[in-house]
């Protein structure tokens, strides 16, 4: 039995609220249960120095957490003076995931920066962030299309992410904090709307896991991501 | 005529929503029109080193802004590696303002950290932050009282803040961004519920201002803060 | 009775010694009693990036304190690796104050950097710095005029600053350290030679203050700044 | 055909040279072809603050690269002033991988820090580092055992790592730089001597990959890691 | 002919003004011509962590330069966020030089921090700093002796420093900036009152120098330091 | 008797192994006994900003130490976030020493960066680094010559370095760590192949030293550097 009473393959209540920012070209407040992440997509005219003059754009992501998003207050990274290794690892993951479904040439010489800020955390912040970031990114591209700044298809597919893990010996989908902190195995999957795998990260927290177990987690992830992509489609329709 | 059509002494729509955080001991989402600040009060058992063993507590504040809270995306301070002078100035102001109404001995040897994070900015973020921070701080102290961690009266009074300025030659209350960026004079007032002045900051952006003009701004501030304190009282009743 | 035996409206002995630096285009060693600040104005040909190509100049200020300027040795900010919030707050104040009396278009596309370094501190370092910085800035502009680098009137007025506070229940002018560390209310005023207000900062250290008390402090400040402007005039005549 | 003429499931020439450091308690110079990593294990008596007094030890890892380990000289991280996101991601991975086979209670209250410094890079530095780090760690623990600092079994198993990827449409084992920079999919596997999976990281560099392709990569990895564990066994026998 | 018309073995006008700081336990404003350095010695009760409990004291030094001490304004190190290599090299030299004449056991478990801040620079700042720092240090120790904080002889000897160089082919003493920036060879010597050598630093700026030339520089240095020690004696008598 | 049984004027076993890096234009692994330093010379097309457009090149050096190069593990500078004063002092010395024998105009508008990384330390790392760096630099220049990137003579002479010290009252050559940590006087000499002096650094660790003692150290250094230059010649022949 999961602490949340969910079935093994049951997502938390997921909502995707668009246009939550007065300023951003695209924005989405994504909730996976009590995990709430504000995603904003900002169009910037400059591209990174190494990309200049190549007629291609770039999509990048930054990730942050409010100090009291968590059970214990964490020190503010701006005050510490640097981003933790965990933060950098997550924002690199989000950026790679989004770029996997963007045609950077069709985007043209500009950069879209997607900020994913965790307002409240209850496990799975990186997967919620990727799922919501896609919506913000999509709306930013539509904003550009409305102004004829892009002509061709820029977004090639959906992208969404979910965590899976082995909790009390059972593979389960979409771990919340209570499960995550006790899971034997923790894994994150990022997949496209058409089922292609973009990122797999699996970590044994305690005992190593077997190939068979990993196959079960991957199976759960496919189910979960399918549902998330459906929710993305509903949110923009 | 103000861009927002408000009367010279008219506040923006102000709301104070409590208990918006699953984790924090006290929290308040404060809105002054399109300026939205999430305030969380976190109880910490440690006090600053210089205060140890003195049977007194401390209240401190940190301030941050999400990168796309503003019209143009700003660089994330955690990524830059330091907090700007403006950020530090504001969080020092919030901390001083809150401490002015707290009996630190009655609080006992612990620290309350109030985080004020600007989700969306449209002028007046520091005054909204102070006004909302008081509510979060109050709920944190009530949380402690319910657990018999404090016995005596800790909060001595309300504290709230408002900006005033001279816009198009007219003294006006509660400047939004459109006014703030064009005001000749910008000032912030922090006052208690009983009308005592805790902080005054006045800056001539263009031409210096006269003593008479400053008196008019102070008059507006008294009116505005009176209304904010009423709203605080309603929010906690 | 004040610790220094001064009357409530009496400044400390103030001196403004010009041309104390072999290298700087303008310089002034300002003393407010035992508070000694070395102000140097440096002409630099570059302007900040955001001002390039606009035919306008810029005046900026930096503030520092020698480690043993104070009663206890403080850690050197260059060694700590960053400037404190207090330092940044003060140098922003000095810069804004000076710019309030400078015609930046008449200055032309260059920057004057005014460094205010506290050699010895006994309270009121920021007000002494502003008062002396005006003299250094003025001499730098005269240096430019002698070389025909500026033609029009660049300095529009004098600028000077003074602190006031409520000490033992009495409003007093120009607090030294002994008074400052025991004052109920601490305020700083920056005004022009013609009596216009440029900056007001008032802080209740203990109990909030009333509008009437603040009016008394402002009255003292006007008297004090009038005298400081007279001393500036004498120093450059 | 692979640039190196290797078969799809063929490792590069791998060597594990022990006791290469005069000072370290355990050390290993590991070579995967032209990728050379110096691993040193240092016994330290202190543990991280959050572990004090718990009768348990800790194993941590740091990763670095000499500036000219690569084809183009990279800026030295000590000179830049911070470690890149990539560096932090890798050293977190190495530390987690090693801890997966260590009985931290049997280690006792001390810390082993394993430094993995890339002397020369040609792809696969993180997998070489993990494979060599195990040897250095093992020798450090034997050093402790010889001094009766540990009594029980501390190392529970071997740990080794290898990369796999899809190069020119074919799944291949142990990518060198020429392959890595052109692979469609890049993945790293960390497994124990008994075949348990500890870490899986798979990233689509271009097109997403399928579940079937991922299964092929995992199969290759199992073969490769089996061989690496055999080499570890030979090196310490 | 030297730019300053001095003879080859002639020092600039040197003055050592004591007790220039209201706060420091010992202080000296040293001038070598237009090079002015403020030296303050601060007694601190704490010693560095690695020295605790050893009944011995420590003497350390920090060096700084005001931004406009030089012909062109330099960036403030506190604003840059770190001390330059040159600054660190000089403050390490000053510290070592002072410790060479201090009996650290006789000092007892405390630390004296000597700050050397260059108010105005015209070459030879490090040698002026060492020469003045000795006077500040001596007065700090006398301050302690007057309070019976030290009993035994703490200062074992005088210490002073001077630069020498080869200018236009001629060995000269005490280079000012005009000479220093054109010298073929630049060297600094630190010696005790009894003629012992504590530090020698010689650098060929252009062509290497010969053993004979170096002998001439050393000879000049001995003369110059003898005079500086005489001046120190006069200043404290 | 020296701990290593060497005669007073005897170097440790010195080897200079060239072409140890697959990537660098020039490289040398230098060993002075148990002190091992990897020197790589990297050709970079950019020059420092202040040198642009002057048809001259630049040679710079960086120095680092692996964390467990020493008896106790040191904190990694990249992790601390800055280079120590010692590191900066040494890399400035290496750079100056190399530039003393390079014709920067003949090099043309490019920069050679020489990285000296201490793999294992046993005293004398800076002198080994300089001696090996010359070989790496020389091979980098030959690499350029083979590609007709330089035409004229760029290297004007050999450069090598050695330490000397007074150990148990006797002047000795090439101190290892056991001697270095107990020497009364520590000095480093950098000289050219033709015997010119480029750098002299002498420090009294305990009692000051006399002019005569310093002469003896210089004599030893000349002998030692002569042998090092012979070894350099053999290594490149």
Give a written overview of the molecule:
- Six copies of one chain form a homohexamer.
- Chain A is an alpha+beta fold.
- Helix content of chain A is 32%, strand content 29%.
- Chain A has helices at 77-80, 85-99, 104-107, 125-146, 177-180, 211-236; strands at residues 14-18, 26-32, 35-44, 58-65, 111-120, 159-167, 170-173, 185-192, 197-204.
- In chain A, strand 1 (14-18) and strand 2 form a beta hairpin.
- In chain A, helix 2 (85-99) packs across helix 4 (125-146).
- The first copy, chain A, starts with 13 loop residues before the first strand and ends with a helix.
- The A-B interface holds A 21-24, 27, 34, 38, 40, 42, 44, 62, 64, 66-71, 73, 76-83, 87, 113, 115, 117, 119-120, 122 and B 21-24, 27, 34, 38, 40, 42, 44, 62, 64, 66-71, 73, 76-83, 87, 113, 115, 117, 119-120, 122.
- Chains A, B, C, D, E, F: Residues 10-140, 159-223 form the Exoribonuclease phosphorolytic domain.
How do the strands and helices of this protein lay out in sequence?
The structure is a homohexamer of 237-residue chains.
Chain A: E1 14-18, E2 26-32, E3 35-44, E4 58-65, H1 77-80, H2 85-99, H3 104-107, E5 111-120, H4 125-146, E6 159-167, E7 170-173, H5 177-180, E8 185-192, E9 197-204, H6 211-236
